[in-house]
Amino acid sequence: MPETRQPFTPPSKLWPTVPSGGGWLPHGYHLDPHSHTQGQLVYAAAGVLATTTDRGTWVAPAHRVTWTPPGFVHSHRFYGRTDARLVAVPADLCDGLVAHPSVFAVNPLLREVLLALTDRGEIRPGAYARLLAVAVDELAEAPEQSLHLPEPRDDRLRAVTDLLQADPGVAATLAELGRAAGASERTLSRLFHTELGMSFHRWRTTLRIHHALAHLTSGRSVTDTAMECGWSNPSSFIEAFTEVVGQTPGRYRADLKAQPR
């Protein structure tokens, strides 16, 4: 597979202005906050992509694609050596997709369409537009699989999530975290549900899965990843990872090894 493809020239500040293309990005590469007048699909054919807006962070492993509608300020971070594919969606096609940032499942057809859109130039007049229409049609039917970590607004809640972000593996209870943040367990539990739409346990599990994906992508073992991300044993990690990601961490690592480098 070539190191660079269509007009995309990574890593580069030009990326926000480039309509589409792809290239390999190094582990940890970060694109600063920016926005587009068009919609944007970013697909990591290998590696893991995290997209952050003021609404939170979305993580997409290789079988998912991120969607950012026009006008949303967002940034990207890549984990593992990432085969990044970028597809711009003209504004007149964006109404066919959800009006908020999200992550969608990538079926075999959509994967091949995204690769074709970013691997080669236009074969015949109108071919690119027809492929893009197929991609939008597939995304309109694809389930949202967001792996979304919402961003809190309440200062007390933000103090707790900042502590967890700094150390996802910390075993502190919500009551213990609340004492550090100056809020009661009951208040924080209510805020997690009303402001973030999920329980404290679910938010922390999602955070840990985000970090687990990055660890596995960088070559860590399943056992080491489980311990570093806060699970007391590999079995409980495997169960949580499979529920959220849709495959076991072992299968995820095996798929990573099978990907071209």
From TrEMBL:
Alphabetical UniProt keywords: DNA-binding, Repressor, Transcription, Transcription regulation
InterPro entries (UniProt xref): Homeodomain-like_sf, HTH_AraC, RmlC-like_jellyroll, RmlC_Cupin_sf, Tscrpt_reg_AraC-type_HTH
Species name: Streptomyces aurantiacus
HTH araC/xylS-type domain sequence ranges: 158-255
Keyword Transcription regulation: yes
The protein, known as: HTH-type transcriptional regulator RipA
Superkingdom of source: Bacteria
GO MF entry, a single one: sequence-specific DNA binding
